[in-house]
Amino acid sequence: MNQEERLIRILNYLEIHKTMNIKQMCEIFDISRDTARRDIVELTNQKMVVRTHGGVALPSFHKKIDDYRDRLRTESETKKLIGKKAASMITDNEMIYLDVSTTVNFIAQFLKARQVTIVTNSIDSAYVLAQSEDTTIHFLGGTLNKSTRHVTGFSAIEKLKDYHFNKVFIGAAGIMEDGIYYGLEEDIYFKRELIKHADQVILLTDHTKHNHRQNYRGLTFESIDTIITNKSMPNNLYKSIEEHGVEVLITDTE
Questions:
Q1: What is the arithmetic mean of pLDDT over 38-51?
Q2: Please, are residues 103 and 125 in contact by the beta-carbon 8 Å criterion?
Q3: Which of 218, 217, 219, 213 is nearest to 48 (CA)?
Q4: Can you tell me the mean pLDDT for 152-172?
Q5: All domains of the chain, ordered by start, with CATH?
Q6: What is the arithmetic mean of pLDDT over 13-24?
Q7: Measured between alpha carbons, how far is 107 from 87 in angstroms, rounded to an integer?
Q8: What SS3 class is residue 142?
Q9: Which of 41, 154, 204, 245 shows a CA-CA span of 20 to 30 A to 99?
Q10: What DSSP state is assigned to residue 183?
Q11: DSSP labels for 48-72?
């Protein structure tokens, strides 16, 4: 196992257990203490972890993935405009999927199309949509993630295979020239399965995600049909997106 693979597994372990000491690293990965220390140095330099006495831990406030409620407040007006634009793309009688993204959640507030069937794993989207008489809601099963207010896990991924969507609306933790990034490993497997069952994949992202890298590259631009954002992309990013024929829609900020 090379260092990159080991670092990913260390981060996965920390997502569950929060802390990890050198002895555990040595036993789990069958490595020397010197190798474990080099891994700690690398993760610390990347600001993925903080050092503790004898090991590492996740930062008290994870700078890579903000608390869900904080993300919902951040750039909320911008996200509303993006969500409103996305909602206008939905037509009557479509089958769509709404991701757990805080930006995607705003679609539910502005949905005007009638007799739409919506599949989601977001508690907040399902709650808002439940107020509408013109929608049929399918809620994926799985394990509840209390902090992000959505269900996840193997059963949620498997259930996706029962559907075919006219459109899916997804978010991102970051966008780089080589694709779409997410903060958790499980996100990439979910997104990759999701896009297999869609006619059109629409990515919603505000400008804070432009040229921003996260832990895992989940999708390439070949998987995306349309990007809705609030500001023009940086030249390097736009060039890469344009090469893949992705449509970019910029919201009216007035």
A1: 84
A2: no
A3: 213
A4: 92
A5: 3-57 (1.10.10), 68-250 (3.40.50.1360)
A6: 84
A7: 5
A8: coil
A9: 245
A10: S
A11: S-EEETTEEE--SS-SSS--HHHHH
